[in-house]
Write a structure and sequence with these properties.
Blueprint (H helix, E strand, L loop, with lengths): L2 H15 L6 H17 L4 H15 L2 H4 L4 H17 L14 E7 L5 H14 L5 E5 L7 H12 L2 E2 L8 H15 L3 E5 L8 H14 L3 E7 L4 H14 L3 E5 L8 H10 L3 E5 L7 E3 L2 H8 L5 H11 L2 H12 L5 H13 L2 H6 L6 H9 L6 H10 L3 H5 L6 H11 L3 H22 L5 H9 L22 H10 L44
Parallel strand pairs: 1-4, 1-5, 2-3, 2-4, 5-6, 6-7
Antiparallel strand pairs: 7-8
Helix pairs in contact: 1-2, 1-5, 2-3, 3-5, 5-12, 6-7, 8-9, 10-11, 14-21, 15-18, 18-20
Length: 521
């Protein structure tokens, strides 16, 4: 989501930054376009008015218009106001209360409430090391209780035994009693939903709240419903006193208006966002990072955190040592391809890299098939350990055998070997210290350059290491301290290096250079 809004705002603001000086008329015209872009993204009208008025008030001041770089100052003001609209600071689920801590999950039917309840339970169990009990209070929807019980097993937490004939309030009280007796830290109460907000739904949720006195009341809202999600949030907050919002389907093609409006309309923070169907597809909502991505500034911090979560440290150290010695075999390539998949593929990574929006569009426009990664790993899996370590052994007879085992043509194996040779040369150069990962990426994507501690692609060659002041400014821009990279991948000069990206095999694409996955057939 946010892609359409990001493109519009980036285009409007880049027009300002290209000008040497700005007049009040320039700013007014730009704000008119920003207002139109936000309305088209389904942002609430009252929020749009407040946002554009604040930006214009600050942007036409003498400090901006007489600045050396007035266009960039306007971009900074827009970024700051976006962060303020989204909530300034990231807020997580508050568990600072005597155990068992009750958490009431509310929302409309179909918003993903039950699945989100299980996702949060998994997060609290794995990350916070809390003992969690799940209880379904949905006595109306067929198999709702059974669904939560199945999800509880899937995420490794306990669920309240089902007793037919009890009301929602009776189940809630039984859940609290069971939690006290069982020594649970958290009780998650999954309430019933309706297709629309009605009095019966609100009355039942209010009764459960009165009976359990929940420490958190989390509203689960579907980001795809746009303005309806904002109206729903307002209705639930007025009746139940919502403490936080969880937005689902943030990986969908919604225009982002719900996320931008909810915090401003309700005053309640967006605490978590669902980014997929899997039980681990749940992320904290960081306003500063989201604002950066909307304005095309990337999200380095999230990229580094994702790398830190998914990279095997010991394996990274072994790979780094092999790179240092100039060795990079097919087993290493398979590991790199798997790493790329875990981190969201080419599109996911490019969305987090600053200044990569144009290339991302070219990649998407080429109709690339990212399933190519799985096929390439299947080819490598069909080889013997000796063949993976020494690709020179792969003559025609062996290639035919591997092709039959992997269910591909021999030409696919030739492409893979060509990609491996390119990657091996790149890794050898990086291991010798001659090129940073930024330069390697620049070469791969036809950008040229490197610099910034080897961490940022597409910058002019020979750029010096960043100063402590520059690092502090960047950390402020990205909304927090830049976390260190895992061993073997570390950064230079205080800037995190990008995780080692695999060779992106397949035919060359015009204007991109390097190798990308093949087109879909």
């Amino acid at each position: 989501m946010f892609e359409g809004l990001s493109d519009r705002l980036s285009g409007i603001l880049s027009g300002l930054t290209r000008r040497g000086a700005l007049t009040e008329a320039d700013v007014t015209a730009a704000m008119r376009e920003v207002r139109r872009a936000l309305l088209e993204a389904d942002v609430a009208l009252e929020v749009v008015r407040g946002f554009t008025d604040k930006v214009k008030e600050k942007a036409v001041g003498a400090v901006v218009l007489k600045s050396v770089t007035p266009g960039q100052m306007v971009v900074k003001i827009v970024n700051d106001e976006l962060v303020a609209m989204l909530g300034t600071d990231a807020e997580t689920i508050d568990l600072n209360a005597p155990a068992p801590v009750p958490i009431l999950m509310v929302g409309l039917q179909g918003s993903g409430k039950t699945t989100t309840t299980a996702k949060i339970a998994r997060r609290l169990s794995d990350r916070e090391k809390r003992k969690v009990l799940l209880a379904s209070l949905d006595t109306r929807r067929p198999a709702a209780m059974e669904q939560l019980a199945v999800l509880a097993k899937q995420v490794g937490v306990e669920s309240l035994p089902i007793i037919a004939g009890q009301s929602a309030v009776q189940i809630a009280k039984r859940a609290m009693d069971a939690a006290r007796l069982g020594g649970f830290d958290v009780v998650m109460l999954d309430t019933a939903g309706r297709t629309t907000v009605d009095e019966a739904l609100m009355a039942e949720a209010a009764e459960v709240k009165a009976a359990t006195q929940p420490h958190e009341v989390l509203l689960v809202a579907d980001a795809l419903t746009g303005q309806d999600a904002v109206n729903t949030a307002r209705a639930f907050d007025q009746r139940l006193g919502v403490t936080g919002i969880v937005l689902t389907r943030m990986d969908g093609d919604s225009r982002g208006g719900a996320a931008l409006s909810m915090r401003a309309v309700t005053g309640k923070p967006i605490k978590l966002v669902g980014t997929g169907e899997k039980v681990d597809a749940l992320e904290e909502f960081h306003p500063a990072r989201v604002a950066n991505r909307i304005l095309g500034m990337g999200d380095i911090v999230s990229l580094v955190e994702k790398a830190a979560e998914t990279i095997d440290h010991e394996q990274a150290l072994r790979t780094a040592e092999k790179m240092r010695k100039g060795k990079f075999d097919l087993e290493d390539l398979s590991m790199q391809l798997g790493q790329m998949e875990k981190m969201g593929g080419i599109g996911g990574l490019m969305g987090m890299l600053p200044g990569m929006g144009a290339i991302k569009k070219q990649v998407e426009g080429a109709n690339l098939d990212e399933k190519m990664f799985k096929r390439q790993r299947a080819i490598i899996s069909s080889m013997t350990p000796q063949e993976r370590k020494n690709p020179d052994l792969l003559k025609n007879s062996r290639k035919k055998r591997i092709a039959a085992g992997a269910g591909v043509d021999v030409s696919e194996i030739n492409k893979l070997l060509k990609m491996h040779r390119t990657m091996a040369d790149m890794m050898k150069a990086m291991g010798s210290g001659k090129r940073g990962i930024g330069q390697a990426l620049g070469s791969m994507f036809g950008l040229g350059g490197g610099g910034m501690g080897g961490g940022m692609p597409g910058l002019p060659p020979g750029m010096p290491e960043p100063t402590p002041e520059q690092i502090a400014q960047l950390e402020k821009q990205f909304g927090g301290k830049l976390p260190p990279m895992p061993p073997g991948l570390g950064g230079g000069g205080g800037m995190p290096k990008m995780p080692g990206l695999p060779g992106l095999g397949g035919p060359k694409l015009p204007g991109l250079g390097g190798f990308m996955p093949g087109k879909k057939k």
